[in-house]
Amino acid sequence: MNTVEKIHGIPALLCAAEGASIAAEADILDLIGDAWYQEARWIVVPAERFDVSFFQLRTRVAGDIIQKAVNYRLGLAVIGDISVHTEASSPLRDFVRECNRGTQTWFLSDLEEFRQRLAG
Asked: Which positions ≥6 away from 59 have C-beta within 8 Å?
């Protein structure tokens, strides 16, 4: 079950680790709808919810999903250990590093790191 938590005054939809795999742009739409309905500004998704294709940039799945979140003016945080994917792909490592420099999409190790990033 997804829950909304205000973190430093910012509502974030915290997604459960259990749930349907996110393998395409259409799969994120339910989460976007849930976030909008609950007036969340961030969607926080455990990394294990994403299909392996999300971490293979050539599939364009990550770009499509992130762009959908951007279109709805929502932040997207991928929470968890993705080192198996970043160690296998230098383009993914670069992509993650660039995302983490911004304010829209973050790849973070845990929820506490997300809380710290929101704190400023």
From this structure: 53
